[in-house]
């Protein structure tokens, strides 16, 4: 970002504004700020980065509107809202000022500045907006000592495609002036209502953040069925909103719509610092939920949680963790019978998708349903074109994201309702209340069990993380260049003579670096993770996290293995089944030598 870089880029076209708006625009010269790049999902920075530099957000927002251009912004509608974290209230006001100066005619805002990511995505489509601005750093900790984040959603409500994020990043490097209107004070976004400015030339439409979202889920699920199921004597569940955005959504859905008691919801009030917690819906960050489930007196059939912005989900039962890969597989298996949105579709499900590092449990269900599975790079944006083209009806990722084609985002509460629908169907056919563990074991009995784990090496030096990938790229991947990947072996124990072997053979049979060509628009994404394939069909996948807001890197090592149904499979510990392949991956990747770590920081 130098003067010469800026001067070599043509100046952005200026919007033609209604005179009353034009008269209120304040133009402030600025210079590009380093590092305004986007990761897997928007920009995430330590909150202090923005608080300490009042030009930080205006610069970035100006880059958004410069990248979109007046042909897109003038006279159009934008949607804005976020997860309620610290600095969002300030940011909403900045978005309104820059949006008005860019010629937007209207901005829809969730009251209190709140909108979960799937609610934002739905509102973009419902209101015919050209896009949405999500103020969230997802599951990262919040507050002045935590992180802040922002992402742009496209017209379909989903994450901006890479071409647009590339234009935004280029625009951040060329920004010379920020144009923002002066409203003469903060706009009231606390309560629903239409606020009109400049004689109606600019309108702020503050809406109940939950209403349209609940209406949409009412199109997906039969709430009458769910309502009578959860009213069954003996039914109880808990949902942990983690003091983040999903509290009000969970209340609107579970309490006000389905009639469950308020005690169903844990940590239901959004707090600016998420109560000091880390709203990452994994068992490690939901101790109260795990404790509630462990209490036999509570008799819970379902435990669930969502993250900061409500797009991720955790599904658990008493002493039972449903892996995201299994959750997608089970939802796909039951979609055609338990979820009207899918069941009433002529021709059935068109296909499903999972990200490449996600263990392929859903592939077995898709094979049984005779529908295609698309394997995409990590990041929800890669599902977007498949959803838009109607090629997939469900998709999911190992990072606790699952959704259907009712919205172009992952959707935490959609998944929880999906599990309620699955439990209702399974309970109806069993003639008794059935919990998540029984459902998953039934799924394994029909399809076999896919074991999976993610080993996270958090805070390794960036150079060390890159060296691990480079070492594999130059070593085993190069060694298999031009060699076809062998067909998958028959499952361990499938010859039936000595039962299912729970430990696996770990001979490397292939390695490559994942590259993806979007089957709809032909866009190519290369360098999407190193894949190691082993003789028993198990996999190791390595990539660097794209959501880590720190200067260091998080190296992710994903492991999976398949075992057909048989004695001991249901109770096998994934650590035992995957230990052999994990050790071999660590050896091939020279993890200890290159990172200095003898063990992962966290196992998910
Ligand atoms: C965000 C995206 C997900 C993606 C995840 C990966 O949450 O919305 O689509 O799976 O990032 O995170 P990572 O840290 O592994 O890059």
Kindly describe this structure.
With about 600 residues, the protein is α/β, with parallel strands linked by helices. The chain folds into three domains: about 5-210, Alpha-D-Glucose-1,6-Bisphosphate, Chain A, domain 3 (3-Layer(aba) Sandwich), CATH 3.40.120; about 215-445, Alpha-D-Glucose-1,6-Bisphosphate, subunit A, domain 3 (Alpha-D-Glucose-1,6-Bisphosphate, Chain A, domain 3), CATH 3.40.120; about 450-604, TATA-Binding Protein. It is about 35% helix and about 20% strand. It is built from 21 helices and 26 strands. The strands form six sheets. Strands 2-6-5-3-4-9-8 form a seven-stranded mixed sheet, sandwiched between helices. It has a six-stranded antiparallel sheet with strand order 20-23-24-25-19-26. The protein has a five-stranded mixed sheet with strand order 11-10-12-13-14, sandwiched between helices. Helix 4 crosses helix 6 (about 90-100) and helix 10 crosses helix 17. The two termini are about 40 Å apart. Mean pLDDT is about 95; it is low at about 1-5. Bound molecules: 6-O-phosphono-alpha-D-glucopyranose. The site of 6-O-phosphono-alpha-D-glucopyranose has 13 residues, from loops.
Helical amount among residues, as a percent range?
25-40%
Helix vs. strand class: alpha/beta
CATH superfamily of the largest domain: Alpha-D-Glucose-1,6-Bisphosphate, subunit A, domain 3
For the secondary structure, the number of strands is 26
Query: Main sheet?
Result: 7 strands, mixed
Mind telling me the C-alpha Rg? Answer: 24 Å
What is the number of helices? 21
Approximately how much beta-strand content do the residues carry?
15-25%
Gross CATH architecture of the largest domain = 3-Layer(aba) Sandwich
How confident is the prediction overall: mean pLDDT?
94
Q: Tell me the distance between the termini.
A: 39 Å
What order do the strands of the largest sheet run in, or round the barrel if closed? 2-6-5-3-4-9-8
Low-confidence stretches: 1-7
CATH level-3 fold name of the largest domain: Alpha-D-Glucose-1,6-Bisphosphate, Chain A, domain 3
CATH class of the largest domain: Alpha Beta
Count of all domains: 3
Bound molecules: 6-O-phosphono-alpha-D-glucopyranose
**Per the principal axes of the C-alpha atoms, what is the gross shape?**
globular
């Amino acid at each position: 970002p130098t003067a010469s870089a800026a001067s070599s880029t043509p100046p952005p076209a200026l919007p033609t504004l209604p005179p009353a708006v034009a008269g209120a625009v304040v133009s402030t010269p600025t210079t590009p700020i380093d590092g305004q790049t986007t990761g897997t999902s928007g920009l995430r920075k330590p909150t202090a980065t923005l608080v300490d530099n009042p030009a930080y957000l205006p610069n970035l927002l100006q880059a958004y509107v410069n990248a979109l251009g007046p042909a897109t912004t003038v006279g159009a509608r934008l949607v804005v809202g976020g997860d309620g974290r610290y600095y969002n209230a300030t940011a909403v006001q900045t978005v309104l000022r820059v949006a008005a100066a860019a010629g937007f005619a209207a901005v829809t805002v969730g009251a209190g500045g709140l909108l979960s990511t799937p609610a934002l995505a739905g509102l973009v489509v419902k209101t015919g907006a050209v896009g949405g601005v999500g103020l969230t750093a997802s599951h990262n900790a919040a507050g002045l000592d935590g992180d802040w984040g922002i992402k742009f959603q496209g017209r379909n409500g989903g994450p901006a495609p890479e071409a647009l994020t590339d234009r935004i990043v280029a625009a951040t490097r060329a920004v010379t002036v920020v144009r923002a209107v002066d409203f003469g004070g903060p706009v009231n976004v606390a309560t629903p209502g239409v606020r009109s400015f400049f004689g109606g030339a600019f309108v702020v439409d503050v809406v109940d953040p939950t209403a349209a979202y609940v209406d949409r889920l009412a199109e997906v699920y039969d709430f009458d069925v769910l309502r009578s199921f959860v009213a069954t004597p003996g039914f109880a569940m808990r949902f942990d909103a983690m003091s983040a955005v999903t509290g009000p959504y969970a209340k609107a859905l579970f309490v006000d719509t389905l009639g469950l008691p308020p005690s169903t919801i844990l940590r239901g009030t959004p707090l600016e610092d998420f109560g000091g917690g880390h709203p990452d819906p994994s068992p490690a960050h939901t101790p109260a939920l795990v404790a509630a489930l462990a209490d036999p007196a509570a008799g819970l059939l379902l435990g669930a949680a969502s993250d900061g912005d409500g797009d991720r989900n955790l599904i658990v039962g008493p002493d039972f963790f449903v892996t995201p890969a299994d959750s997608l597989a089970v939802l796909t298996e039951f979609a055609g019978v338990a979820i009207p949105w899918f069941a009433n579709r002529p021709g059935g499900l068109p296909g499903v998708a999972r990200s490449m590092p996600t263990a392929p449990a859903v592939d077995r269900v898709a094979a049984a349903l005779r529908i295609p599975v698309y394997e995409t790079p990590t990041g929800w944006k890669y599902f977007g074109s498949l959803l838009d083209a109607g090629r997939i009806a469900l998709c999911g990722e190992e990072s606790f994201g699952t959704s259907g084609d009712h919205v172009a985002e992952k959707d935490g509460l959609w998944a929880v309702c999906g599990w309620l629908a699955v439990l209702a169907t399974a309970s109806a056919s069993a003639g008794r209340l059935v919990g998540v563990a029984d459902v998953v074991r039934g799924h394994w009995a029909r399809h076999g069990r896919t074991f999976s784990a993610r080993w996270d090496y958090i805070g390794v030096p960036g150079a060390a993380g890159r060296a691990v990938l480079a070492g594999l790229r130059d070593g085993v991947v190069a060694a298999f260049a031009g060699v076809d990947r062998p067909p998958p072996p028959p499952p361990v124990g499938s010859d039936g003579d000595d039962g299912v072997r729970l430990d696996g053979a770990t001979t490397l049979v292939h390695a490559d670096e994942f590259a993806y060509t979007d089957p709809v628009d032909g866009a190519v994404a290369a360098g999407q993770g190193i894949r190691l394939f082993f003789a028993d069909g198990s996999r190791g996948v390595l990539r660097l996290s794209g959501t880590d807001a720190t200067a260091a890197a998080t190296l992710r090592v994903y492991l999976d293995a398949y075992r057909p149904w048989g004695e001991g499979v249901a109770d096998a510990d994934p650590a035992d089944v995957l230990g052999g392949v994990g050790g071999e991956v660590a050896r091939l990747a020279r993890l200890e030598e290159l990172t200095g770590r003898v063990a992962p920081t966290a196992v998910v």
